[in-house]
Amino acid sequence: MEAFQGLIKGSLGSPAAIAGTLRETTPLLIAGIAVFFALRAGLFNIGVEGQLTVGACACAFVVLKIPGPFGIVLGTIAGMVAGGLWAMPAGLIKAYRGGHEVITTIMLNNVAGLFTLALVSGPMKDPTQEGTTTANIAESSHLPAVYDQNSLTISLALVFGLVGAIYLAGWFKRTVAGYEVRAVGANPTAAAVAGISAKNVIVRAMTTSGMIAGFAGAMQVLAFEHRFYGGFSPGYGFDALGVALLAGQSAFGLIPSSLLFGILAKGGTAIQIYGVPKGITTVILGVLIVVAAAIRYRKAKAVES
Amino acid sequence: MTGISKRFGAVQALDSVDLHVKAGAIHALVGENGAGKTTLMKILYGALHPDSGQLSVKGSSTEFRSSAQAIAAGVGMVSQHYGIIPELSCLQNLMLGAEDGPIIRSEEARQRAEELARSMGFRFDWNADASLLSPAAAQKLEILKLLWRKAEIMILDEPTAMLSPADGDALFHSLRKLTEDGATVILVTHRLPEVFDHCSQVTVLRGGKRVAEKAVFETSKNELAELIVGKALESNEVRNPELGSTRLQITRLQVFNDRGAEALKSINLEVKSGEIVGIAGVDGSGQRELVQSLVGTRPISQGTITFDDLPISSESPAMRIAAGLRLIPEDRHEDGVIEEWSLEENAALGLQRLFPFSKKGKIDIRRRAEEAAKIAQRFSTKHGGLAQPMSSLSGGNQQRFVAARALDIEPKLIVAFQPARGLDLAATAEVYRGIRDACSAGACALVVSFDLDELLENCDRVVAMNRGEVFEPPPNKELDRDAIGRLMVGAQ
User: Could you say which of 1.10.443.10, 3.90.1010.10, 3.40.50.300, 3.90.226.10 is the CATH number of the domain covering B236-324+410-492?
Assistant: First the structure.
């Protein structure tokens, strides 16, 4: 009980704690959108982690060369393009050769991690520093905060994430393209009969998912980390799988679901002073996901019978 | 069977139904979907227990607690969905569940199987895999399975649904032979001609009640149809006397199936404006591949398909839909609907890019709801609200919805694969009337069915498919049952 109070206090108890929670929430939300998008098309994009990493790396590379607002825009685009290109092969292999996207994206994750590590160990390394990291980006290249008072900071990146989730919910419901993506995810043969090219949708959905993941990486660099370094993502791409699974059928669900993950991530660090291992929050998350899946399965069964 | 009642939840499936079948008779049981035929038969062979009522077999009152008891008493059923396991040999299938003791003596078993088959005039390669059996042969094996179990009362549920007329006739020939030897056959069927050609007694169920039990010679087709539906059926006799110009032209079309075998051997076919062309044939004659290549989900290797002078065979499926092609698919679960989606969302499936469902890539939710309501109403789909998932509908109601959707927005070329699948007589007539109305308004239609009578009744002309080829009956015999029946099995 004490630990639970500590968890809440550590994540929501003070403006600084809330700021920390929101900071954790932001990449989880945007990466969650990436996973969610692919999931609607019936694709399990485990590669968000790698796409996020190359996106962050590409963004840092551009922003280090071109500072200022123009650099921010260009860096964001670079991150999205890199993430998209990183995901596209998995989509192509799935569509034209039937290779399972889970396998290909996992392998691409490893390539992404090691490739970017090589870059920051060599060409992109800041020579003045010991570790495998780039130099810090210029102050003028920082993404501005929308609110910054009493040590409560809300980054523009979070706003992008919120707007993105809300927009996506409408996009899936109200556009033909969104309808067709969902049709391929729900029943590919019926979609084909309905004149929808599943191959096309799979490649585009995978690439878009990678672009969103790359966007998440770019936001990490521009809003929070201000540099790129080896081992950049502490597993946001994997936590995002949980975020998307917990979100349910609508993209709106990504918002509370990523917030919950954010609270547990931030609070988890706080409760260590009570001698409770941080891993307990992972256990809580695991239980939540299993329960959510069980509820959905029961609903599906109820509809069938 | 006397006074049989059975209730499922709120539905009274059977309401004190009597059924008296004389020994040695072929007794027909007819009725609409949901009339209670299947429930009654399940009670007879022990798969269901009646809430009340008496069952007596061969004069002694009995009660079956399981189908094993029923078969022990000599009652067996050949179901609509064949109970043949394709991986086993014919002999293994024959014996399955009725082996004499724990040790199988193959040689003795084969001899007995051979004798049984010979007595019926059947021939089987007992060691061959059952997967190689044609639908007709599988049906025969099912009957032998019952004989193997010494069944004296046999229930056959729609036995000719998958058979050519010739195979169907052969089946009835062997059934008659069985009854001469003292067996009794109960035939559940939708096809009235079978009742008149082969049965001696007929029982009509409607809404869980027995509405008539008659000797066949005392009744007529019209009377029977009226008894089944409860009202006089409107006849669909209106055919289009005037046909327009050719709209669909299939030229030398060659297509391969999934296993790489030639499924369509350079076929030619044309359909004129206002015309409904029926394609008869035994299942697996190439109908499926023809429909797929029309829709665009199967690549064609040679030949062309043109519609209104537009070579649609080189267009994407989406372009073909935009050109007016509409499909009532064979397998609605797989091809026609997305089960977990609402009826409203399913209403747009295939039509999602067309006005009024969407405009410039944006879905018009309000208009879609209106169209969905229209589609559901057209063939009176029973549903619990348009926001309910498609999976909440029964198969027949899904079929009504899917058929109505295909006719909803300016169809120009209607391709229908078994459009009446799972529908009762009244709904079947309604769907064909819908297709006819569209064709009167200038569309044309290609209808595939395994039921020749259904095609003869509703099409302007019927062609036969056999082993990947299309055979057109000679002039003035476009609707001649015998001529087409011969073409279906490859006899000229």
Answer: 3.40.50.300
